[in-house]
Design goal:
Shape: globular
Order of helices and strands: EEEHEEEHH
Largest sheet: 4 strands, mixed
Strand content: 25-35%
Number of strands: 6
Distance between the termini: 13 Å
Helix content: 25-40%
Oligomer: single chain
């Protein structure tokens, strides 16, 4: 079983087919999502102390904070899809 990994910065990766959303953290609802994930102990912070620039939500309801711009993470995700990795676009079973 081969998994396609999405680089989210500082040597950290996430399984691309598990990503549900890549969001900008600047709105109040996104701050609430982050706070609720922290309370539920499902928050993963990979910013290395830097400012959060992207929030990644997975199908397991984990919330991942990244210091890489949401647009950059999204373009990396799109590049994986364009490389012909059909597994990324298939629904997770």
């Amino acid at each position: 079983m081969e998994q396609v990994l999405l680089n989210i910065g500082f040597g950290n990766t996430v399984v691309a087919e598990r990503v549900v959303a890549i969001l900008s953290p600047n709105s109040s609802p996104m701050k609430r999502v982050k706070d609720e994930a922290r309370e539920a102990r499902s928050l993963i912070d990979v910013t290395h102390g830097r400012k959060t620039r992207a929030i990644i939500i997975t199908d397991s309801n984990h919330v991942i904070l990244s210091a890489i711009q949401a647009e950059t993470v999204s373009s990396r995700f799109e590049a994986l899809i364009k490389d012909g990795d059909e597994k990324v676009t298939e629904p997770v079973k």
